[in-house]
């Protein structure tokens, strides 16, 4: 009997330790990718699990064209503009490994390039505020690899980069803004966007935005915030929209629950916020010393 009680206690204690470690480890970026890969789960889980959890992983391709075409077939991309824009940016220029897999990949500096279906979802959400060749200004906070910055630039400037528009990518790690610049220079179109100043990468704390480049028609935030930073909302144009993952208020980081919030500012400057799908992003944090 004693032995039975003892072994039950050991089993319970190991289960509790595993749960504790699981919760904390899952927050670490690279491990989160590993766990995602092992459990075959996408980087973000959506409101509609049948759509994002199962279809996302079926959307991988052998080429960039195949990846985008599969995302379109799975209805993870629904707009022709986003489809064209993502088709004209080769993800292999930005993801060091498995670029055509619909999953996040490590890019060094404890950062990841997000999964293509998450980039698609962000671009689609911001699309009504990013007309082509109308001088729209966009801020990409946590620009990392620079992939989405390029996709957003194609949306406002056109795939040839000749239209009127501007995208600023901001990241707090200089090694990453340098890497994003190098990545973009791998294509003629990317190089043209940089040379013309229609894309600019700056190093700084994205939680403060980049007031010099605003006000912005669209703001994308690529890492989870602890709050809906009011200073970012201030830098939105009227009308404008922000797409931002935010840590769940009630959860307070305990279980890593996060949701996308879509923040709209109308012509009169009135702000409305809407909670969208559940996601998993790395946190916006202080720059490493
Ligand atoms: N959207 C990018 C990167 C996503 S990973 C891509 O898909 O390639 C999140 C990024 O946010 C990392 O590059 C990280 O360096 C950056 N980041 C984290 N905290 C930040 C902060 N306070 N200010 C700016 N960037 C930050």
How far do the termini sit from each other?
A: 55 Å
- Strand arrangement, largest sheet? 5-4-3-6-7-8-9
Mean pLDDT: 85
The helix count comes to 10
| Tally of discrete structural domains | 1
What gyration radius follows from the Cα positions, in whole Å?
A: 20 Å
Biggest sheet features: 7 strands, mixed
List all distinct small molecules, including ions and cofactors, that are bound in this structure: S-adenosyl-L-homocysteine
Instruction: Tell me the CATH topology.
Output: Rossmann fold
Beta content comes to 15-25%
Structural class: alpha/beta
Helix content: 25-40%
CATH architecture level-2 label: 3-Layer(aba) Sandwich
Q: What's the order of the H and E elements?
A: HHHHHEEHEHEHHEEHEEE
Brief rundown of the structure:
This protein is of the alpha/beta class and 289 residues long. The chain is 37% helix and 21% strand. It is built from ten helices and nine strands.
Topology diagram in text:
Layout lengths: L1 H24 L3 H10 L10 H10 L5 H10 L6 H8 L17 E4 L2 E3 L2 H11 L9 E6 L5 H11 L7 E7 L2 H11 L3 H8 L3 E5 L12 E6 L8 H5 L1 E12 L10 E8 L5 E9 L10
Parallel strand pairs: 3-4, 3-6, 4-5, 6-7
Antiparallel strand pairs: 1-2, 7-8, 8-9
Helix pairs in contact: 5-7
């Amino acid at each position: 009997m004693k032995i039975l009680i003892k072994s039950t206690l050991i089993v319970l204690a190991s289960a509790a330790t595993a749960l504790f470690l699981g919760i904390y480890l899952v927050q670490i970026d690279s491990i989160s990718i590993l766990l995602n890969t092992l459990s075959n789960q996408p980087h973000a889980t959506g409101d509609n699990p049948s759509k994002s959890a199962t279809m996302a992983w079926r959307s991988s391709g052998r080429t960039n064209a195949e990846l985008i075409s599969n995302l379109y077939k799975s209805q993870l991309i629904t707009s022709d503009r986003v489809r064209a824009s993502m088709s004209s940016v080769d993800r292999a220029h930005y993801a060091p490994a498995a670029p055509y897999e619909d999953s996040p990949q490590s890019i060094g500096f404890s950062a990841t390039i997000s999964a293509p279906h998450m980039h698609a979802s962000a671009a689609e959400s911001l699309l009504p505020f990013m007309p082509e060749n109308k001088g729209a200004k966009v801020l990409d906070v946590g620009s990392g690899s620079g992939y989405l910055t390029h996709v957003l630039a194609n949306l406002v400037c056109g795939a040839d980069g000749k239209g009127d528009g501007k995208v600023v990518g901001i990241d707090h790690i200089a090694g990453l803004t340098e890497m994003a610049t190098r990545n973009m220079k791998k294509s003629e179109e990317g190089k043209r966007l940089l040379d013309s100043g229609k894309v600019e990468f700056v190093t700084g704390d994205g939680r403060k935005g980049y007031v010099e480049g605003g006000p912005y028609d669209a703001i994308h935030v690529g890492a989870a915030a602890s709050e809906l930073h009011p200073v970012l909302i201030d830098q939105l144009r009227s009308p404008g929209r922000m797409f931002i993952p935010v840590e769940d208020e009630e959860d307070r980081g305990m279980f890593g629950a996060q949701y996308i919030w879509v923040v709209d500012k109308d012509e009169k400057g009135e702000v409305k916020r809407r909670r969208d799908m559940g996601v998993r992003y790395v946190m916006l944090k202080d720059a490493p010393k």
